[in-house]
Structure formats: structure tokens, C-alpha cells
Design brief:
twelve-stranded mixed beta sheet, 36% helix, 434 residues, 16 strands
């Protein structure tokens, strides 16, 4: 009996020892993964080689350097396993990782989107956070490679859930950020100019301005998803202002949206002048409409020579004080004769929550009786199928995507686009989906 107990204890000790060795190995691998990108350094990509370089200098003189994604696939245990996969050169989906320059795995496609941001770059995380960059020249530039699953319904933006430890890097299932590159202003403009001029059909770009509670990575993923689903043959670009990226950050985001307006205006002027795009389309969402509408009106009143370049302006679920919009913003757009479409809904819970917070109507909230907006087209999207919050319908619903794509591709106004009805029918004041 004593011998049997001794044997069991020896087996137990051996199992415990094996477990401890495995844990030590796991911790070692985690440490090695963390050391692949050290604090204060980044990898500069020159062709097919990567050399270790010091932290990128300010945007005006920055050389290309990589940015580490901060999405859910890189956080917690999922992020650790993703990094371990990167360390051995595999994405887990059949491709090899080379800081965003890898070949897309089977079942996924890679979309390169370009950005400008006045967020502060965080060397420790190698990404842009929610703090504003308060140092001139404020703006940073670059590109992001986003992986999009091929088998995905238009409008879907599938992200790895927090518990997806082993499958968080599944490119056939999730929208993933595969890598990013920081560029100087000069290199950014030269790159987008070359891309636009190489387009086979027309020299076009669309610029997306995200809304409240969006991280930098959120904006990159959404821009790539729209580029695929709209399929309008325009270079995808996004402007990311320093949203805190949290639901509790509404008041902070309001201040950030006001702060960013001058920088967005400068970027729109710079892009219009130097990108070689002859057709520029703006799509702003939620609180992002606040800086965009003021910046664009200020710019074009000052520089009317740039007006012909801005072909369509989309205001999606704008979180703007309704009276301010009707009295101070819409008349300016009308005088400029900007082709503008505003999408609003009565089922947008986020906009309704904004009204509760501010105790003032928002222009993106349709309530009866609906009153048209002189100088622009108002489209009621209340009847379309939405998700729980009903706030991202502009990019997640097939009907909205089709309507926006048709508008951009053909230049047709609402009267001539199929799928919309005028209300009242004889002399429409606004438009709606059946």
C-alpha cells in the first residue's frame, strides 16, 4: 500500500513538474513576443527588408514605420497568440506576416486604406490613442492594410469576440488589421497621387470621417469595409480625430470634435490641392459631421476654386444640434450648391441617447412631422433593417450601401435613384425607403 501511494505521489510530482515547465515555456514565448517590438523603436520597411530604426520623428519628416494594431485580435490572450503566430511567420490562415505586406490568405482579401489623423502617436503601443496631438503640425499620415473575409454579406463587419482565443486571427472569418505604415506628409501625398493617377477609370477618392466612440482601428476597418462594399473605384481614405473610443467618453469626444475642425480643414485643402483627385466624396458619420460640415464650408467659402472637386457629401446619422444645423450649417451648404445627402432615422438609439444627454434635438433623428432641409436632400432610413443600436445603418445595410454607391457612381439625385420615394409624392420635401 505504501509503495502504491509513493508511486502515485511520484506521478503527481512528475505531472506538476511538467505543467510548471510548460508554464515557464509559455511565459518565455510571451516575453520573446513582447521583445520583438521594443519600446521606443519601430521597424522601417524598405522594399523587402526591415531594419531597426529609432522612434519616428514628427509627421513632417517621419520615415515609413510600422504601427501595431490595437484591436481585439491584439489584446489579452488573443493578442498574445496572434503575436506568437507572427513570431514564427504565420497568420494562422495560410499566409506569412511581413508587417502588412504579406499575401492575403485563401478566403480573404487585403485592402489598403490611407489616413490622416491628429491623434497622438503612442510609441509604447505603436498605435494612435485617444489623446490629441497638441504639437504642430498636428497631423500624422500613413496607410493601413485591412484583411476582409471574402465570404461576407455586404455591410457585415465581423470582429473577433473577446473570448476567441484560438481563432482571433482567422482572416476567413473576421475583419483584421494586418499592418500599418507611418508616412511623412510628402510621402503620403506622393503615394495617394500615384495610386489615384494609376486608377483605370477615374481619378477619385472617398474620405471617411468617423463618429463618436471610435478608435483609430475602428475607423480603418470601417473604411476598408466600405471600400469593398461600395465598389465605387475611389481610393479609400479616412480622417481620424481623437475620439476616446469609449461609450463613456461622449463629453470628451464633443471637445475633440471641436478641436479637430481646423486640422480637418487643413487636410481637406491639402488633399484637394495635391492628391490629383478630380472627384472627391466625403462620408461623415455621427459626431464626425460636426467638424466636417464646418471645415468644408469654411474651406470652400475661402477657396471656391476647390468646389468642383467635391462631387458628393454624405451626412450619415449626423449628431448635430438640429437648430444649429438648419440655421447655421445648411444655408452655407445651399449657397455653395454642394450636392449633399443627409440620412436620418427614427430608430437610431444612439442619436436618441444623444438627445437625452444634450436635451436638444439632433438633425439625425427623424421625428414627425418631418421637415425638408433647403439646399440638400433628406433621406428617411427608418424602414430599413438595423442592428440593435441602429446607428451604423449607412454602412451596414445593403439598401443604404446601394443608394450611396449609385449616387456616387452616377451623380444622380434622389428623384432619379431607384428604391426611394418622394414625400409628398407630388412635390417631395424629403425622401424615404419604401
Amino acid at each position: 500500500m505504501a509503495q502504491a501511494q509513493s508511486n502515485r505521489m511520484q506521478h503527481s510530482d512528475a505531472g506538476l513538474s511538467c505543467l510548471l515547465r510548460l508554464l515557464c515555456l509559455f511565459c518565455l514565448l510571451a516575453w520573446l513576443t513582447a521583445c520583438t517590438v521594443q519600446d521606443g523603436v519601430a521597424y522601417r520597411l524598405d522594399g523587402d527588408s526591415a531594419e531597426l530604426a529609432s522612434e519616428a520623428p514628427p509627421a513632417e519628416v517621419a520615415q515609413p514605420s510600422t504601427i501595431r494594431p490595437s484591436g481585439s485580435a491584439w489584446s489579452g490572450m488573443g493578442g498574445l497568440l496572434s503575436n506568437l503566430g507572427n513570431l514564427v511567420g504565420s497568420t494562422g490562415s495560410g499566409g506569412t506576416l511581413t508587417s502588412g505586406n504579406e499575401t492575403a490568405p485563401v478566403g480573404a482579401m487585403h485592402v489598403t486604406v490611407y489616413y490622416a489623423t491628429d491623434r497622438q502617436y503612442q510609441p509604447r503601443s505603436h498605435n494612435y490613442g485617444g489623446q490629441p496631438n497638441r504639437a504642430a503640425p498636428y497631423l500624422s499620415y500613413g496607410s493601413v492594410v485591412v484583411s476582409i473575409p471574402e465570404k461576407r454579406a455586404p455591410g457585415e463587419l465581423p470582429l473577433p469576440p473577446w473570448y476567441a482565443i484560438l481563432s482571433s486571427n482567422n482572416a476567413q472569418k473576421y475583419v483584421l488589421i494586418k499592418g500599418a505604415t507611418r508616412l511623412s506628409r510628402t510621402d503620403f501625398l506622393a503615394t495617394v497621387k500615384a495610386r489615384i493617377q494609376a486608377a483605370p477609370e477615374r481619378q477619385a477618392a472617398f474620405i471617411y470621417i468617423h463618429g463618436y466612440s471610435n478608435s483609430f482601428d475602428d475607423a480603418a476597418r470601417r473604411t476598408a469595409q466600405m471600400a469593398v462594399d461600395l465598389d465605387i473605384g475611389a481610393l479609400p481614405v479616412f480622417y481620424s480625430w481623437p475620439s476616446k473610443g469609449t461609450l463613456a467618453g461622449y463629453e470628451y469626444d464633443q471637445n475633440s470634435a471641436e478641436w479637430t475642425q481646423a486640422h480637418l480643414q487643413a487636410f481637406l485643402a491639402d488633399f484637394a490641392e495635391h492628391s490629383s483627385a478630380t472627384d472627391i466624396y466625403l462620408i461623415a458619420h455621427s459626431m464626425g459631421n460636426r467638424p466636417m460640415t464646418v471645415a468644408l464650408a469654411n474651406l470652400l467659402e475661402k477657396r471656391p476654386d476647390l468646389l468642383p472637386l467635391f462631387k458628393q457629401v454624405v451626412l450619415a446619422a449626423p449628431d448635430i444640434n438640429a437648430d444649429v444645423f438648419r440655421d447655421q450649417i445648411a444655408p452655407r451648404f445651399a449657397s455653395l450648391k454642394l450636392p449633399t445627402t443627409l440620412y436620418a432615422s427614427a430608430n437610431d438609439k444612439a442619436i436618441r441617447a444623444s438627445y437625452t444627454f444634450a436635451d436638444w434635438d439632433r438633425i439625425g433623428d427623424i421625428r414627425g412631422p418631418v421637415v425638408g432641409i433647403p439646399g440638400m436632400e433628406l433621406v428617411d432610413a427608418s424602414t430599413v433593417i438595423m442592428n440593435f443600436m441602429g446607428h451604423d445603418y449607412f454602412a451596414s445595410n445593403r439598401l443604404l450601401l446601394t443608394d450611396i454607391a449609385t449616387m456616387i457612381k452616377t451623380g444622380q439625385r434622389a428623384r432619379n435613384r431607384g428604391g426611394l420615394k418622394g414625400i409628398p409624392s407630388q412635390a417631395p420635401q424629403y425622401w424615404a425607403f419604401p
